[in-house]
């Protein structure tokens, strides 16, 4: 697949780039995408939830009434889960929700999303650019020049650029990252991928390392 390279003003530079068939030309694998997104979302969970069970509730353990002869069920303690204010049965405890995924699976997931976005014409290649200073106005003009105002966009840079990042971080539906840090969830969540030329080279090197 061949795409034109655009500049920061949304104009065609006259240059073209051929996207790697090993990344953008594969058949997307939906299952590995599901696994990678599931792991990402699981890792976002703090897992600090906790409820007190009957052994942790601060009540007296004295027997509430005699065992027999009352006409009601036996009652041994206010800590019992069936009592109001008693402990919870099998309540949540702190835990780690993370799980392991093989590196090749994660790489295939990213390739699959990139391929799907390319096939849906949702990928734009930009020549390398930066801003003179962090200005949100400059980034809004950049989005407007590419007719992306109000759309969910993911800008992938070759390396961190503080001016570009600070210019766009407060804009709704806008995400800025680097090629080495981008993940499957971010790729999938965006309506349009904006990939700089240096980022395309980094992605090729990273994702084609595992064959």
UniProtKB/TrEMBL annotation:
Coiled coil: none
A single GO cellular-component term on record: ribonucleoprotein complex
InterPro entries linked to this entry: Ribosomal_uL4 (IPR002136), Ribosomal_uL4-like (IPR013005), Ribosomal_uL4_dom_sf (IPR023574)
Any one Gene Ontology BP term: translation
One Pfam entry name: Ribosomal_L4
Chain segments carrying region Disordered: 46-85
Record's keyword terms, sorted: Ribonucleoprotein, Ribosomal protein, RNA-binding, rRNA-binding
Domain of life: Bacteria
Annotated GO MF terms: rRNA binding; structural constituent of ribosome
Cross-referenced HAMAP family: Ribosomal_uL4_B
Functional description taken from the UniProt entry: Forms part of the polypeptide exit tunnel.
Stored PANTHER family: 50S RIBOSOMAL PROTEIN L4 (PTHR10746), LARGE RIBOSOMAL SUBUNIT PROTEIN UL4M (PTHR10746:SF6)
Assembly mode: Part of the 50S ribosomal subunit.
Family to which this protein belongs: Belongs to the universal ribosomal protein uL4 family.
Listed name of the protein: Large ribosomal subunit protein uL4
Species annotation: Persicitalea jodogahamensis
């Amino acid at each position: 697949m061949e795409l034109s390279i655009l500049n920061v003003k949304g104009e065609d530079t006259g240059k073209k780039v051929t996207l790697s068939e090993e990344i953008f030309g594969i058949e997307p694998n939906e299952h590995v995408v599901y696994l990678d997104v599931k792991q990402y979302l699981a890792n976002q969970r703090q897992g600090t939830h906790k409820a007190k069970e009957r052994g942790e509730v601060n009540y007296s353990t004295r027997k509430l009434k005699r065992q027999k002869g009352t006409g009601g069920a036996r009652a041994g303690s206010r800590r019992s889960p069936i009592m109001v204010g008693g402990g919870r049965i099998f309540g949540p405890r702190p835990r780690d929700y993370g799980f392991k995924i093989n590196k090749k699976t994660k790489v295939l997931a990213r390739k699959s999303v990139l391929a799907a976005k390319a096939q849906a014409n949702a990928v734009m290649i930009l020549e390398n650019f930066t801003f003179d200073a962090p200005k949100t106005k400059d980034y809004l003009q950049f989005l407007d020049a590419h007719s992306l105002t109000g759309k969910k966009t993911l800008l992938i840079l070759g390396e961190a650029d503080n001016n570009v990042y600070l210019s766009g971080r407060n804009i709704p539906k806008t995400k800025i990252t680097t090629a080495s840090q981008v993940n499957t969830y971010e790729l999938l969540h965006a309506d349009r991928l904006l990939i700089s030329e240096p980022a395309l080279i980094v992605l090729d090197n990273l994702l084609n390392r595992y064959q």
